[in-house]
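Lecture notes, unit on protein representations.

Consider one protein chain, 256 amino acids long.
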Amino acid sequence: MSSTLLLVLSSFLASAVEMVEALTIVLAAGIARGWRSSLTGVGVATATLAIVIIVLGPAITSLPISFLRIVVGGMLLIFGLQWLRKAIMRGSGFKALHDEDAIYAEELEAARTAGSVTAQGIDWYGFTLSFKGVFLEGLEVAFIVLTFGSAKGGIPLAATGAAIALIVVAVVGIAVRAPLSRVPENTMKFSVGLMLTTFGIFWAGEGVGVSWPGADIALIPILGFMILVAFGLVKSLRRKHSALRVPVPREVGAES
């Protein structure tokens, strides 16, 4: 039960983060270049992602389960530690907080000042901007769904978390037509980093033959340990940052 809840929650949070970033880009493209071009880019990117998932899904799930868990665990560790490192650096003050309003303003200005190339009623700058934003962020969502689901045979569960995130972000985005700057995105990224790392340790361990005490329940103490380590690093680095009085750099671009 704990494994199922963590899997759905991890998929939801990670997908929501990527979708908020994609929404920021799509909004900028739609407002500056026209909604027809922007939404066409969204549709083509979504169709391309669906093809990628259809092709990669069976290939991943056909691997031997022990080998699959080693591969998936290792990949989750790589991604999780990257997210966690950035979250720790932001939490300690060494890295600027992610500002969707600032990123939206930059994307909007770039879209407005870019040259216009139109064919068959489609503005290709707006199309490309939306396509790139949705496709690149969507690839990470697809990776999360496929890896989480394939390691435990729970692709429908991981897909459910991602689908809920898509619905929530899309509904709120349509309602407000503005970047979701009030979403605690940096906190979500910290949580996702912790969860990805936790699952990575757990599944990689299972793949090499580790028999975790309590089976899936072992995810809870692993997560607790990672939380203690992460917050310990934040506290230590925050003291160092205060002592050095290092100015926080402004974050530029939609870096996750």
